[in-house]
Amino acid sequence: MRAVVYTETGPSSVLTLVERDVPEPGPGEVRVRLVRAGVNPTDWKFRAVFGPAFDEVAPGQDGAGVVDAVGAGVDDLAVGDRVWLLLAQHQRPYGTAVEQTVQPRERVHRLPDGASFDLGASLGVPAVTAHRALTAGDVDRLGPGTLEGRTVLVAGGAGAVGNAAIQLAVWSGATVVTTISSDEKARLARAAGAHHVVNYREQDVVAAVREIAPDGVDLVVEVAPAQNFAIDVEVVRDHGTVAFYANDGGDEASLPVRAAFANNLRLQGLILYTLTPEQVAAGAEDVTAAVAAGALRVGEEVGLPLHHHPLEDLAAAHDAVEAGTIGKVLVDVADA
């Protein structure tokens, strides 16, 4: 089978297309023939900053394809089932930059009928991160009505996680406010379903959000805490939550301590790799339900343009994500 791998830390040029033996699934494992793979910031950061944890790594946490073999003990998936993958390369040498990947059963999820492989490969890291952020407050699961009556502020609504957070929050009944930096990003955020859009380059964010939510928002999904914690403290309600999942804009953040404890603010950092198995499973189940309901989609029409690259051009896909391409970068592993 074809695979794209790296053996050393470095720029995207360390990625190499190779031929490898087709792996066989062991007990409790599933082999998936990939059609699409998703590329996330975590993929290029592990390659460029942290380096390989194994002698050889095929990157990629997300993907979608068809089951083509199952190991002993797997009786709820069968050859031919359409699936999406989550955390495929976490603590494993081979992720989704391969034609066939073997994964533990718990990382393989059914792709609902009618959902494209493009959508399946776009779920994973962005959607489950958004799910965890939205459940960091006073709800544990998402679904119709679970966020009814709540107002959610999504910082950076034009990004992949922001887009998923908007769609999942709207599906769950929340009023969604998002911050953006341009008219084009405002268009994308509205296409995703945001009810209110605030341009932080042109507007006073605190004043604009407080006009929409006079008592404050219930939850902030934050991508740039170093830049926004001071704003978040001013716009969140008493006993509200700020859930942050990235370090855009800087690695060090300053928090207005008195204001934060005065309104009993909850700060929740999050990353998928250290979630509990129960949290990951809940996220995957709710995301799959949202897909089945038609509430979680991808494409220009819902604010997430798709950018395709062939497997042999994975380096360009990594470079596109690192450069901040707006939308979702996908790798075409095989014909759909």
Provide structural commentary.
The protein is 29% helix and 25% strand. The protein has 336 residues and is α/β, with parallel strands linked by helices. The strands form 3 sheets. Strands 3, 4, 5, 6, 7, 14 and 15 form a 7-stranded mixed β-sheet that branches. The radius of gyration is 20 Å and the shape is globular. The two termini are 17 Å apart. The mean pLDDT is 96.
List keywords for this structure.
336 residues; alpha/beta; Quinone Oxidoreductase, Chain A, domain 1; 2 domains; seven-stranded mixed β-sheet; six-stranded parallel β-sheet; 10 helices; globular; NADPH:quinone reductase; GroES-like_sf; NADP; ADH-like_C; Zinc-ADH_QOR/CCCR
Tell me how many strands there are: 15
Helix content: 25-40%
CATH architecture of the largest domain: Alpha-Beta Complex
Please give the domain count: 2
Supply the helix-strand structural class.
alpha/beta
Q: How far apart lie the N and C ends?
A: 17 Å
Question: Quick gist of this model?
Answer:
The chain is 29% helix and 25% strand.
List the helices and strands and how they pair.
Layout: E1 2-5, E2 16-19, E3 29-38, H1 41-50, E4 62-70, E5 82-85, E6 100-104, E7 108-110, H2 117-122, H3 124-134, E8 151-155, H4 160-171, E9 175-180, H5 183-192, E10 196-199, H6 205-212, E11 217-222, H7 225-235, E12 236-244, H8 257-262, E13 266-269, H9 277-292, E14 306-310, H10 314-322, E15 328-332
Parallel strand pairs: 8-9, 8-11, 9-10, 11-12, 12-13, 14-15
Antiparallel strand pairs: 1-2, 3-4, 3-6, 3-15, 4-5, 5-7
Helix pairs in contact: 1-10, 3-4, 3-9, 6-7
